[in-house]
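Hey Z.,

So I finally got round to the NAP thing we talked about over coffee. Here's the setup:
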Amino acid sequence: MRAIIQEQYGEPDVLKLAERPDPKVAPGEVLIRVKAAGVNPVDWKLGAGYLDAMMETQFPIIPGWDVAGVVEAVGLDVYDYKVGDEVIGYVRKDWVANGTYAELVSANVRLIARKPAALDWNEAAGLPLAGLTAYQALNRARVDKGDTVIVHAAAGGVGSFATQLAVARGARVIGTASERNHDFLRELGVEPVTYGEGLVERVRALASDGVDAAVDCVGGESVDASRELLSDPSRLVSVVDPRADEVGGVNMWVRPDATDLAELSRLADEGKVRVFVDRVLPLEQAAEAWRLSREGRTRGKIILSVS
Ligand SMILES: NC(=O)c1ccc[n+]([C@@H]2O[C@H](COP(=O)([O-])OP(=O)(O)OC[C@H]3O[C@@H](n4cnc5c(N)ncnc54)[C@H](OP(=O)(O)O)[C@@H]3O)[C@@H](O)[C@H]2O)c1
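And the result:
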């Protein structure tokens, strides 16, 4: 199969297109013919070696954790999926080696769910990792109807899902973004505020009592601002900044979860969650996708189209 590989940690330029053996399919796994692979900041962070202290890696790495595709084969004792099923997955395995930037990827059934029919392949590939992060962050922050929630980096991959999911739960959502994204956020039912100095005052101008919960996808000043705006610090969930733990909140790392993913798929089919695709690039331009992602200006998702 064709795959993107990296033989060492480094900058996006380390990525290259190569021929690799087709993956084996273990018991409990399916083999997925990849239609599209979602790009996430963690892909290039891993690729640069930033997570080396906590994740086992086996070079050459095929990067990528997000996938949408068609089941091509099933392993022993797989009774829940059959050849031809359309699936999505957050394919984070126990070690980093055979990811989704490839024509084929194997995945345990614990990591996948049925593809929402309402989404095309590119949209579907953008849903798993960022969607699960948003969904689990809202759960950890106990976001419910009537809450006022702030989402930091509301226009990004995780943020665009967190805002929509919070609105769907009946929350009032305030989202931080640069001004070029304010109309986009309004379309999602979000009250936009510009980040940077004076953020707390700008939020208080909208919500004088502050907020009930916060989902942070930025870190640093957004943790401090959230702490000031929250009366209950345990309802701060940061997916980036370990300091959230120190101020009484939660520093969260998304878990692969087939039940949560199926729920997201259902919400997408109900039209409650849309996937905003910023850019689609062919598989061979994975390095360019990483460069774009590293700029930190993505609205929604960057996707690699594979077949
Ligand atoms: N712990 C976990 O489980 C987990 C899971 C997923 C992601 N993450 C991490 O969470 C972060 C966000 O991920 P993502 O996929 O959402 O990234 P992303 O899509 O690349 O985020 C891009 C967005 O960030 C916004 N942004 C940039 N600087 C900002 C600031 N200072 N304040 C507010 N918004 C700002 C940009 O909006 P403007 O263009 O308007 O500035 C842009 O829309 C990354 O660091 C990622 O590694 C962690």
